[in-house]
Amino acid sequence: MARPIRLEFPNALYHVMSRGNGGENIFIEEADKHAFLELFEELLICYDFICYAYCLMNNHYHLLIETPKANLSQVMRGLNGRYTKYFNKTFHRMGHIFQGRYKSIIVQKDSYLLELSRYIVLNPVRAGLIQNPEDYIWSSYCATIGQCECPKWLAADNLLAEFHNQRIEAMRLYQKFVNQGIGRPFSGKITQQTYLGNEAFVNDVQKHIDTQQSNSIHITQLSKKAPKKTIEEIISTVPERKEAMNAIYKTGHYTMFEIAQYYGVHYSTVSRAIRSFRAKCND
Question: What pTM does this model have?
Answer without folding.
Answer: 0.76
